[in-house]
Amino acid sequence: MNHPPYDPFRSMSFYGDTCFLTGEKIADRKENKVHALPEWLIDRYNLDIAGITMLNGNRMKYRDMLLPASEDVIKAIEKMDEITRIAFEQGHDAVIKLPKLTLFQWMARVFYGVLYQDFLYAIGLHGKKGETFPVSGYMKKKLSNLLFMMHSLIRPVQFINFSPWSIKCYRVNISKDVLNYKDETHHLNFCLGMNGFGIVACLQDNGEVEKYNHDIVEKIGDTMLHPAQFEELYGRFMYANYLRRDVSDYVLNEEGDTLVFSLPEDPNKNLPRFGEWQDKTFAQVLTNLWQPWGIPIEKIYSFPNSPISYLINENTNEFIRPEQVDLPF
Q: Residue 100: is its pLDDT beyond 80?
């Protein structure tokens, strides 16, 4: 490639005067920044004092999670934030009209923006000890590719005969005053629920997880889900992504200003794409996701029975209507 995209994971170098996406030096370290979560979302859901626990055990507020960015990147993210704000505030029918690429860009920015804060802390902590922050080659590769795909914010990016993601949006019976956001770092899973809709996504599965869950996706159709059903669906996506066998890497080229991704020849293409489903492991996934309802794992799973489901009736294999789910909203 003539101009390979910026990759901070090669040297594990993250600096406050360097644009997180392009690697450009920025003029003003205080002004040239974007929030990990859009400011409108922070304001709408009163997230000023909300945050997450970092690697050091301290909590960091969402308001303080910032990414250094060049002026071009800031303008691109501000444009994306406005487009998605309008759709998210209107609800499901507007969200499903957004291009999948736009939804991917939005989720990738939030995912990476939050993770970036942990990297800054961990690298600094290990640096003080004269150590290098250990990150597996597998994770470096996945996060580098996530950044490369995010270049679609500022330049043309093309995916040859595949989509890098599985993204599904559903109606969910969730209050407009509730924000349900979570992600899973190792396999780049993402979940968002708000204002009557929910999105489940795998940000780098090459569309395989959606295909794996095709039957249940078809049975749900356009039905408004009970929140517990939505959580189960996210669990099915997340666990399937865990079972998925990765391809070796993407083939990355440039055609003019366009960044072109294609899939390599898979030497193991005759092997199963997914590992064997383990009910006991999936039951633990459900236990974690159904914590708001206090459902213990003993109720969810008892061998040799399958784990309980609020989506599919085990006897008839039919979709369970949300009004039949005997759980509070």
A: yes
